[in-house]
Every structure is written in structure tokens, then in C-alpha cells.
Amino acid sequence: MPTPGKTLISTPQIRKRVKILAREITRHYRGKPLTVVGLMNGSLFFLVDLLRELPVETRIECWRLKSYQGTRSTGKIQGLDSCGDDYSGRHVLIVDDILDTGLTLHEVTKKIRGLNAADVRICVLLDKQVPRKRDVTAHWTGFQIPNLFVIGYGLDLDHQYRTLPMIRVLPS
Ligand code: IMP
Ligand code: MG
């Protein structure tokens, strides 16, 4: 199958940016008990590349959630009920692939606050420039992108294209 779409962000660009983010995150959390919560499946590649650069004390958890069907958000987050732990005293960093309507990260932040986390922050690879349904701001962002549907580096269209090593845009 030919590689679909057009490259928006290349593999070297991603690699370089992830290293910078990891450095900033490491500096911010020095001396604090950090738990990273990665949202599956979209953040898979970003999460792993970021974690490789974080301190050895970092705890890792993965939450499996779903909100998209094809290229549209269903407006509902599935899977949240079965996720969670007690985060008392922990500084939690939520890692996701993309901030779009804000619904997912709003719900996840709320849930983690309710699990007694000392602090909750957000890191996303991509921030899509769209009007949000919920007021969410990421503390760390890899790249701002226009309102386009993107695939690759973990992002999918109906379960396809996650393994592409770069971010691409499909023709609309
Ligand atoms: P939100 O809840 O609308 O902010 O959407 C967040 C989730 O929707 C992300 O974690 C992605 O899984 C998915 N998503 C949003 N935009 C895209 C896209 O352009 N490509 C692939 N998945 C997307
Ligand atoms: Mg996702």
C-alpha cells in the first residue's frame, strides 16, 4: 500500500521536539513523585519516546479510552470507569496524542483530581486549533496544528495508520 496522505510533521522533527519536551518535563518534576498516565492507544509512540528520556523513578500507567469513530468525535468517552488508582501525593502528568475538542482531557483531569493527586498536568504531542468544547490547556505541547485530521505516530483512522513514523494529513 502506498503511504497515504502528505507529511505534516516529519520523524526528525518529532524526535527533536520530544527530546526538548522531556528535558523541560524532567526539570519541572525534579524532586517530585511523578506518575505518567498515558492515554491509549493514540499516545503509544509519543508516550514511549518521551518515557525513555524521563528519570528512573517515574511511574507509568496506561488508560485505555475511546471517543472517536472514523474522523469524528462521538462526544462520549468510553473506558473511563475501569481506569484509576489512588494517586495520593503523586504529581500526575497525563500524556495524550492530540488535544481536539478537549472532552477527553477534561474528563481524565477531573477523574485524576478525584483520585487525590497532588497535582495534575497535561502533555500532548499535538494541539489542534479548533474551538474547544471544554476549556483545557496543555502544560506542554509538541506542535500546534491547523484543523485537519491527522494520522501516524500513534494516531489512527479506524485503527489504521498508527505505525507510520511521522504525522500525515489525509486528503479531505
Ligand atoms: P478530544 O476529546 O476531542 O480532545 O479528542 C481527543 C482524542 O480524539 C485524541 O486522543 C485522539 O485519539 C482523537 N483524535 C482527535 N483528533 C484526531 C486526529 O486528527 N486524528 C486521529 N485521532 C484524533
Ligand atoms: Mg486518543
Question: Could you walk me through the main structural features you see in this protein, from its secondary elements to its overall organization?
Answer:
The chain is of the alpha/beta class and 172 residues long. The protein has a single domain, classed as Rossmann fold (3-Layer(aba) Sandwich). The protein is 23% helix and 34% strand. It has helices at residues 11-29, 44-51, 103-114; strands spanning 6-9, 34-40, 59-64, 66-69, 72-78, 91-99, 119-128, 140-145, 150-151, 167-169. The protein has a five-stranded parallel beta sheet, with helices on both faces. The protein has a three-stranded antiparallel beta sheet with strand order 1-10-9. Helix 3 (103-114) links the parallel strand 6 (91-99) and strand 7. Helix 1 (11-29) crosses helix 2 (44-51). The mean pLDDT is 94. Bound molecules: inosinic acid and magnesium ion (MG).
Low-confidence stretches: none
CATH topology: Rossmann fold
Average the pLDDT over all residues and give the rounded result: 94
Count helical runs: 3
Largest sheet: 5 strands, parallel
Number of strands: 10
Order of strands, main sheet, comes to 3-2-6-7-8
* Distinct small molecules: inosinic acid, magnesium ion
**Can you tell me the number of structural domains?**
1
- Overall 3D shape: globular
